[in-house]
Amino acid sequence: MLVRRISVLAQKLNKFMCIQDKSFSFVQARMYGVDHEIKQYLQREKEADVNRSTLGDDPKKPKTFIWFPTEAPTGEEFFLGNLRNWFNYKKRKIDKESQKFIPERHEVLGANLATAHFIAHRGGKIRFKNSDFWVELNKDGTLNLPNVYDPHYIVEAVDVNGFDLHYEGLSNLCDLTKLKWLSLKNCKNIDDWGLDKISAEFPELEYLDISGCEKITERGLESLYRMFNLNKLIVTNHNKSATFELTCMMLEDCMPGLTCEIYESLKLPKE
To answer: What does the alpha-carbon distance between residue 247 and residue 48 come to, in Å, rounded to a whole number?
Structure first.
């Protein structure tokens, strides 16, 4: 199984390295953007409308053609002995809802400022191009950023700063064409799917810190072959997996200039 996983990764990397025109590979890799996220948002809204109650609805008439639930009861159902799971489930649901992509925000602010507002208001930090200053919320909860589109603000670095970012929240980081530095350190909800989305959206990223992301495995690391400019990768091998370390070594061999720092679980460097 280990040999098969390495072989698959090697084939992907070899195929990628054969591409001579990096601009072509950049276009192919950039699968996500504002238009893509808007389509996804509209699709989710359309699905939600099916079950959303409106004025004048007949309470006895089903919202769909299915008269009975099609899903088995989950561990998050509310009952006396399951209060903690129920509370955590509701909290995750609320967090995901608060992080959903809002097209109007991007239309008013543009991709860069929209991302800056989204990250900063949740405890993260942003650095703009040609600046050494990290922008974050003031102590009084205010933010020194424009509330309208300004082309002079170009996001170059994002530090999520460990807040509870979900896959749904990654949609708010779309279309950052100049992003070079990204830290998702200690984001417990970022998994292989999220890493694949990031690698497709930011193929020109130079620095990526995903240490402390417990749900990321070697399967997610394989998607990083798209990032042909990646110089620094910081990860945590939570499961002490040999395949995880070998995947990092394969990435270093096939991507010139890449250096991987691998930390063991519970041994992350102090700030």
So the answer is: 40
Distance, CA of 50 to CA of 4 (rounded, Å): 44
What pTM was computed for the model? 0.75
CA–CA separation, 30 vs 135, rounded Å? 27
- Phi, psi of 260, deg, nearest 5: -105, 130
- Is 163 exposed, middle or buried, given 0-12, 13-18 or 19+ CB atoms closer than 10 A? middle
Q: How many residues does the chain have?
A: 271
pLDDT tens for each residue of 198-254: 998 888 899 999 999 999 999 999 999 889 899 999 999 998 899 999 999 999 998
CA separation for the pair 184, 161 (Å, rounded):
7
Read off the tokens for 46.
């359309």
How many angstroms separate the Cα of 72 from the Cα of each of 48, 69, 86, 221, 262? 20, 8, 16, 33, 40
Which tens digit of pLDDT belongs to each residue from 84-115? 887 888 888 888 888 888 889 999 999 999 99
The Cα–Cα gap between 161 and 185 comes to 7
Angle at 154 between CA 148 and CA 155, to 5 degrees: 110
Distant-in-sequence, close-in-space partners of 203: CB < 8 Å, separation ≥ 6? 25, 26, 29, 30, 226, 227, 228, 229
